[in-house]
Amino acid sequence: QVQIVESGGGLVQPGGSLRLSCAASGFSNRKPMGWYRQVAGKEREDVAYISSTGTYKTYTDSVKGRFTISRLDSGNTMYLEMNKLLPEDTAVYFCYASADRDYWGQGTQVTVST
User: Fold this and answer.
1) Shortest CA distance to 55 belongs to which of 70, 65, 68?
2) Alpha-carbon separation of residue 6 from 21, 41, 61, 104 (angstroms)
3) What are the respective helix, strand and coil percentages of the chain, to the nearest 5?
4) pLDDT tens profile 68-114
């Protein structure tokens, strides 16, 4: 049974940093993974993606140079290091893993505010 659990969200001031973690279990091998974020009333935005080997990474333009996606060398544990956070980064962040379909977790709230 696939299970995906995100953690690490919270309240941070503009310019601050947060590190999100994602643990995906129930897969027989490593999977491509990524993060997307959702603001109520707006479309989902894909934030970052990392290949199953970790060698290929992509970012949406608005986070390039500020966010870094990474994963452990084995299994399906992934991180999103978020620096220089802006109020517009406020959203619920979801981790997903791609197999026969995309699986995602319950999300973790990130709020950037004074």
Assistant:
1) 70
2) 6, 22, 23, 9
3) 5, 50, 45
4) 999 999 999 999 999 999 999 999 999 999 999 999 999 999 999 99
